[in-house]
UniProtKB/TrEMBL annotation:
Bilayer topology term: Multi-pass membrane protein
Identification of the protein by name: Cytochrome c oxidase subunit 2
Gene3D superfamilies (alphabetical): 1.10.287.90, Cupredoxins - blue copper proteins (2.60.40.420)
Alphabetically ordered keywords of this record: Copper, Electron transport, Heme, Iron, Membrane, Metal-binding, Oxidoreductase, Respiratory chain, Translocase, Transmembrane, Transmembrane helix, Transport
GO MF annotations in UniProt: copper ion binding; cytochrome-c oxidase activity; heme binding; oxidoreductase activity
Pfam families cross-referenced by the UniProt entry: COX2, COX2_TM, Cytochrom_C
Family classification: Belongs to the cytochrome c oxidase subunit 2 family.
Cofactor: Cu cation
Transmembrane segment boundaries: 49-70, 91-111
Main location: membrane
NCBIfam families noted in UniProt: CoxB
Domain called Cytochrome c: residue spans: 250-337
Amino acid sequence: MMRRLQQVGRMLPMLVMVALLLTGCGDPYLSALQPKGPVAGMQYDLIKLSVIIMLGVFTVVIVIFTYVLIRYRKRKGDNSIPEQIEGNHKLEIIWTVIPFILLIVLAIPMVSTTFTLAKDYSNDKDAVQVKVTGHQFWWEFEYPDLKINTAQELYIPVNKKVYLSLEAADVIHSFWVPALGGKKDTNPGMTNHMWLESTVEGTFQGRCAELCGPSHALMDFKVKVVSQEEFDKWVVKMTKGENAPAENKAVATQGDEIFKQSCVSCHAVDGNGGKIGPDLTNFGNRQTVAGVLPNDKKHVAEWLKDPESVKPGNLMPNLKLQDDQVDALVEYLSSLKRQ
Ligand code: CUA
């Protein structure tokens, strides 16, 4: 017995360390445990309620179990069998009624939250409508009312409902912004819906939460929550804005030529071009290239030279570009900055 206790005692520091480590699993931009909006808030409340009920049941069962284990253990020299009872009505009623009450306590907020989360805001003039399409391995965001098509960064105004229509272009993906709300699958040939709202401004990390191919883990995106004023400015920039002048205009023009020859069948800029790859109208404003590398000239070049090494299994072909062609394209792409 003493040895057992000593063993448990030795494990205690490790358990404490694991607990401390796990408290670090809550980066505010990527944590369902630090909700930043009503959807994530309601879901977090349900998690808390069910965990509290679970811990309550667990504690009561463990206490009774431990008591019985000690009180009725086999003692040396005592071979008597304790009084056998069964069919105790009072006890049976108690352990039927208690779980029933607990289920009701759990079911009422669960059902009411489910209906609140399933509300349809597709005709709500105040809500921002966004069509989300999951692609291997990037995210497309279309604002049908605002005539904006963009990728990888979802701009939304703070304190406003955003109604998402979710689809997939190829295989099943799952749209997930932990700080703002639970995940929702995007399926080919079928539209799912969800709404989100953020009560704070900031950048929140989004992830694909459905195994969708070799670069599933790299299928990140960002949600940029800005003030209404800033959002309106962004809309104007995206629809009527001009690109910033390129640092090296001659090289950028060269890049533009290459783009028109080799890239435009898949990528659109300002509404001209294919829709197979992400729209690049505001590429220079984005934080990342391919969703995972920092968006600077070095990494854009790295991506153009060998897309497969950055994001295995993606559709972008290796164009086998010469170094000067890469430099020209990099210059052109970096100039696609809306101001
Ligand atoms: Cu898309 Cu995982």
